[in-house]
């Protein structure tokens, strides 16, 4: 899948993202918790989409820059963020238009799982980080696909597509499944040290009507969906 495929349903995706359980009440709060105090930190949002995470980080005092491969998403982000956040259309699989050691942190929210080869993007993100800088990222949890489709197995790196509905509009997203060891091997090969792996619960502020019944009843506190990493640039 190419990032500009989002151009076909960008506005619907943004509308769904604004209030959905998985984005608004699960993934984004988890990314913000992992980022912690960002006041004064220079942060790159790699694959910023329509900019909701950038907006939250900016409101917490960070100095934001963002890029995305979808022109439609960048236009939506410009409407959300105004002129005070530099935004660029760029491909994460290609060299990025930023100098070495520019950023204190990079956030990459549900982006890498669209790519077959992680080495070039991770190498670029490492390059633009200051020594000791953080890459905070989320991806599809590698157990989800094997749990839903046991015949597909766990250990291979393979492509798959899923059908979704975004604010009433259908859309197809294509991902790459990879096992956990393939992820961690890619991180270390690009020069990162893994400092945190998280499988968080939804935000405690999640409206109860959005929660799966077993979470809402208190029988469980979390579900398998995304996997979160904090990496340090060595």
Automatic annotation (TrEMBL):
Residues 44-137 form the Methyltransferase type domain. Keywords: Methyltransferase, S-adenosyl-L-methionine, Transferase. Gene3D superfamilies: Vaccinia Virus protein VP39. One of its GO terms (biological process) is methylation. It comes from the Bacteria. The keyword Protein transport does not apply. SUPFAM superfamilies: S-adenosyl-L-methionine-dependent methyltransferases. Pfam families: Methyltransf_11. One of its GO terms (molecular function) is methyltransferase activity. The keyword Calcium does not apply. InterPro entries: Methyltransf_11, SAM-dependent_MTases_sf. Signal peptide: none annotated. This is SAM-dependent methyltransferase. It comes from Promicromonospora iranensis.
């Amino acid at each position: 899948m190419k990032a500009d495929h989002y151009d076909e349903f960008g506005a619907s995706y943004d509308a769904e993202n604004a209030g959905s359980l998985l984005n608004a009440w699960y993934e984004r709060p988890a990314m913000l918790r992992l980022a912690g105090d960002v006041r004064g930190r220079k942060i790159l949002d790699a694959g910023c989409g329509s900019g909701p995470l950038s907006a939250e980080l900016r409101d917490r005092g960070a100095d934001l820059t963002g890029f995305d491969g979808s022109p439609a998403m960048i236009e939506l982000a410009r409407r959300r963020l105004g002129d005070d956040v530099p935004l660029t259309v760029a491909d994460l699989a290609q060299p990025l238009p930023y100098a070495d050691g520019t950023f204190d942190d990079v956030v990459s929210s549900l982006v890498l799982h669209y790519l077959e080869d992680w080495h070039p993007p991770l190498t670029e993100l490492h390059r633009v980080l200051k020594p000791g800088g953080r890459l905070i990222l989320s991806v599809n949890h590698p157990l989800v696909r094997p749990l839903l489709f046991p015949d597909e197995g766990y250990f291979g790196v393979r492509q798959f597509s899923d059908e979704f509905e975004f604010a009433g509009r259908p859309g197809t997203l294509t991902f790459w499944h990879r096992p956990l060891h393939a992820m961690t091997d890619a991180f270390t090969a690009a020069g990162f040290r893994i400092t945190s792996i998280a499988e968080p619960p939804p935000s405690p502020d999640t409206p109860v009507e959005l929660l799966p019944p077993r979470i809402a009843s208190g029988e469980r506190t979390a579900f398998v969906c995304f996997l979160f990493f904090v990496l340090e640039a060595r």
